[in-house]
Request: fold
Amino acid sequence: MYAWLLGLDIASGPVPWIVWGATALLLVLLPLRRVTGRRVRRTIVAVAIGGILGAALCIAIDVLDVFGTPLPDAVPWWAAAGFAAVGFGVVHLWDSGVWRKIVAVLAIVGALLSTTLGVNIAFGLDRTLGDLLELSALPAAGALPTPLPSSTPTVDPPLYESWRPPADMPAHGEVRQLSGDQRIPSTAGFVPRDAAIYLPPAALVKNPPALPVIVQMMGLPGSPSPTAVQAAADAFAAQHEGLAPIVIVADQLGSSRQNPGCADSKTFGGVDTYFNVDIPQWIRTHLRALPGPAGWAISGYSNGGACSFLYGAQHPEIWNSLVSISGEEYPGMEDPTPVLTHVFGGDKAAFAANKPENVLAQHAGAYAGHFALFTAGADDKVYSPAAERAAASATAAGFETRFYSVPGAGHVGPALSGGLDEALRQLAPRWGLAP
Reply:
């Protein structure tokens, strides 16, 4: 029951419509009584105040740049309508009988839930209730395919030419929680939330091939949820006979209330060590994967994009490819003060040295044969210019670089899904998964 509830799809299907419909019915029932001028005036004032407060809140959020990028266009409308509906419910708590008060309370709760669902859909990042609450109901990973010897060469000819889906291959991939015995250990003091793993259909057969690996990071606030990855990778696998990369969605934050700046620090522990020592070692010993660096990519969205750019620049010996989806140009770009203070102890030189552009300059000639993809929403006025600047830096350093502008997208859900789709399209031929 618990797992079913957290896995409930709140972004599409019947759930939003059921909540919206029930709320609308409650709001219609409330005024079914004798109409008086006083009640009408009181209702108009309450609805107007609620609507103005909702719109004003959104304006303040944008003016104060709370999220580092403008709110999606639909959010102010949802906020105004939701607060107006709350005002409509509140005004019916007075001068009413017990049953009407009960309906009013239910209407207020329904209005708040309806607004939450509408705003969540506008952002397009959290598809399930578990995603929204940052709680996971994924099954534990259990047994994984036995790793191949470290000397296993990259498939030649390309895997897509020789692969024939066996009869036991499922139609879809699976996502699992890397917990318990399969948890990726963190050896330098960083305490991450459990990672998740996506296994494509080809990895779920009796004798799976060695597949490439993507290590993916999400944004701040956020959690290591594989929902977006699963949707993109399953769609790709469906068009390529079950072939897709294995994707580990790992946590670079430790909590949605902190930004460790992608670095090892006394405050947050060894974040860098976790991603560039612990996770690679776990991949080698737990997954039937192509050997790194040629078969491995480091990827991230928003805050995670800053980390992927940094790690790809710092460790070309681990990551042959990097992907930054609507990524920050450097760790702390959106809000540098906490990173400077808590990660680097106020040391501006250390903060600057952690910027990918400066790391790139220290590794001249190290990026031959390496690939970097930077994507951003075409309507994202903050992160799109940052992605273009990052792409220019990577190109100048020697990466083979691509920049992709996601049509019609801002900084949220469509930018993430569009970036993941483009990453798979660009990386698959390099890994022999597609022509």
Observations:
- The two ends are 43 Å apart (CA to CA).
